[in-house]
Amino acid sequence: MSTPPLDLRGVFTALVTPFTKDGSAVDFKSLEKLIDFQLGAGVQGFVACGSTGEAATLSPQEYVDVVRCVRARTRGVCPCIAGISVSATKLAIDTARAVEELGCDGILLAAPPYNKPSQAGLIEHFRAIADSVETPLIAYNIPGRSGVGFSPATLGTLSKEKLIVGIKESSGSVDALADTMNAVSPSCQVLSGEDSLVLAALAYGGTGVISASANALPKEFVDLTTSFFDGRVADARRAQLAILSRIRTLFIESNPVPVKTVLALQGVISEPTVRLPLVALSAASLKAVRSEFSL
User: Is the pTM higher than 0.85?
Assistant: First the structure.
């Protein structure tokens, strides 16, 4: 097997985007501190401006500035992948070209939200973008946010036509994960997008995880994947089971509200601020987060 153009083995943290207290601007000092915290724990790479990064709330200039910041902090150290989730293929192409100019190593490309394209439309969407940039594409299967999911057959076509180098599988279905592994080409790298199913993805032949929870639990996810790759499956199983309760607490309300709260309480970022239509954690959820994380 030839070396993939983008090595997706290990833990890739889907970074939050820290904001100032009033939410009017990106807090780049906190973003840099968060990246350093992750690198210190040994993560293998980052996704900037994905779902966890509240990309839908960023202005076009903020999007570019955040990706530029993450790329600058990681250049020569680890891969930087930019998330793109927009409804129009033309806008996706324009964004992908901007990402390529910034020197990103990959693009995490979701199905166009709201439009609910057919499977044939999804293939043409990816083909148009792949024809426009050289940066490797990773398909992001998250039907709960996009409104439409990729069928295993579609992912198989995208991989066999070499339109993608990997997949973030976030459907929440172990069956869909298994069917996808059967459908894609052997060179296609499949990562878990469900933090509670990392071990299952690895057992099926996946290469790692793109994780929201790793913002707050980077070492735990690195220990999990490293144990598995080293052949210490029992240790990997213990690591996965040990963090299940914390993972579930991090999704007690809409992501990334809980994980930003934990990061702020830990002192990794300055403020837990999210932008509307997201709002701060409820008092009950804040109490649960403090209890689970001993904060």
Answer: yes
